[in-house]
Amino acid sequence: MKGKIVFVNMSSRLAAAFVGQDQYIVFEFPTNCELKENDELENLADTFGFASCYRLSDNKNIKLNILSSAMSFAKAKLVVSPWQESYTDDVSVA
Questions:
Q1: Alpha carbon of 64 to those of 4, 36, 60, 67, 85: distances in Å?
Q2: Which residues contact 16 (CB under 8 A, 6 or more apart)?
Q3: pLDDT tens digits for 17-54?
Q4: Could you read off the pLDDT of 64-78 as tens digits, one per residue?
Q5: What does the DSSP 8-state code read for residue 71?
Q6: Per-residue b/e over 41-75, b at no fewer than 16 CB within 10 Å?
Q7: Residue by residue, what is the 3-state secondary structure of 6-52?
Q8: pTM for the complete prediction?
């Protein structure tokens, strides 16, 4: 399946890709790989485990660790975003 990267967290090495029909897949990428938002990937898997994918922007194969089946935008953003960004608005200080 094809996907377009929409979120990248370089510190955790997690990213999410839009795969169509309002669905997103979260994956871990290797330390020697620099991903950017809007990079396009081919051969994404929708099952857990490692997948050899093809990045169209530079015509390279990369091995990704697929961490989720397809999920909603909100869930994918929550998983990939740093904790502070994801929860700051939900925490009230008494």
A1: 14, 14, 12, 9, 24
A2: 5, 6, 7, 24, 25, 26, 27, 76, 77, 79, 80
A3: 999 999 999 999 999 998 999 999 999 988 899 999 99
A4: 999 999 999 999 999
A5: B
A6: beebbeeeeebebebeeeeeebebebbbebbeeee
A7: EEEECCCCEEEEEEECCEEEEEECCCCCCCCCCCEEECCCCCCEEEE
A8: 0.83
